[in-house]
Amino acid sequence: MIRITELRLPIDHALEVLEVEILKKLAIAPKDLVRFEVFKRSYDARKNSALTFIYTLDVSVRDEAGILKKHAHDPHVRPSPDTSYHFVVQHGHNQLTKSPLRPVVIGFGPCGIFASLLLAQMGLKPIVLERGKAVRERTQDTWGLWRKKILNPESNVQFGEGGAGTFSDGKLWSQVKDPKFYGRKVLHEFVKAGAPGEILYVSKPHIGTFRLVGMVEKIRQEIINLGGEVRFGQKVVGFDIDQHQLKGLKLESGEYLAADHVVLALGHSARDTFQELFDAGVYMEAKPFSVGFRIEHPQSVIDRARLGPHAGHPLIGAADYKLVHHAKNGRSVYSFCMCPGGTVVAATSESNRVVTNGMSQYSRNERNANAGIVVGIDPSDYPGGPLAGIDFQRELESRAFTLGGSTYEAPGQLVGDFLKGKPSTEFGAVIPSYKPGVHLTDLATSLPSYAIEAIREAIPAFEKKIKGFAMPDAVLTGVETRTSSPLQIKRGPNYQSINTKGLYPAGEGAGYAGGIMSAGIDGIKVAEAIALDLVSA
Q1: How far apart are CA 43 and CA 50, in angstroms?
Q2: Quick one: average pLDDT of 115-141?
């Protein structure tokens, strides 16, 4: 096929115009066009008065070689790359070369899901250990915190089938390099499990929480149908390592599971498991992450600022944003995990701590837009070894719990008051969406002074990019601490721990991903590494 890139059309173009433009671009007659499909569709919002869709198209024609030769000097007409997935080991070819033991995947978030799915599709029958509950039971427990202020430390936004990504906007894009198109494999599996087909071509695909629930269940069933096992309520509490070789896992139930090929797909909040790994001698390092607040505006304010007269257009939907500011004190402040038409959610996994996150449904039709406004920090801000970042997070989360009234309500402040440095006492036009509730206060003591200073400088700067961003009635809710893992479990080019053979650190918790897509891609890479180590050619 031939790939056409950078084909621009007005957003209200008729469907048949695409074919007309293809014929014009390639200078061919209608009879020479066999078919075409949209590979990607994005829009350019830099001039919101004249929005255009930008298409990447894959086109099948009768004389491909001749057309490519005719357009040899056009960088926007090239052969389509092969984006299909090719297994490194074929299903059914299960002659083990090194071990009779089945591979084990710890954690069933996006990374663990795709690691176990790929292992199952290659005939390697993985065993999945998930400390939390199945996704529907887990959803009930999560609502228990949001509605009744009752936290289940093993079943919440962080722990359980689907991982933290289940209670998010369901964003399916990433900036990681993907030369082998593993991201296409992730998207195709999601569509097969029930995601809308548009995620294959829109520039910033998302799914939303409710749809993710059913999709995760379908993928789990495929893993089981292929011979895998998914065990819930199975918490790993110890690692049997002898002479730098993993031998097995100790479970909280008392069971010992012999294993020598284990995927660590823990997620960024498995703090107790990080401690177990550290105690077992697995090498890890502290790494940078970010802390800050959630900010909420009326979605209509963001739509008008970003889309102008096209605000509310059904093909564009709720507008998002991405902002960065380099503060005078040397700190970088940026928007994180922006959720158009979404809600701010309680995301703690530990008692007497408050953590915020954002989520959206597929429709993105809630009243408010929200995003993390976070400040980059690094190990020099929290010295003390590989686990020091966890202690730093806990301190801020405990402080937020107290500031919020010690009831799992989150501390909040109006943007106008935050910029003036005075406590807030009543809400204005923006009613926060966080459940179980927001307790108005002064957020100045909720983060280190350098972070408060940087955010106070950044908000007016963001106003220059998005009119209304610094509106006095916008609401800040604290604290956002789990932007990424505070540590990295170092691995080598074979994807195994640099000092523990058989242990494969993967995904967000191990410090190798950030979000659903990159975590899924990393899961695929690690599954391939295990398959190549286990199965002879």
Answers
A1: 10
A2: 95
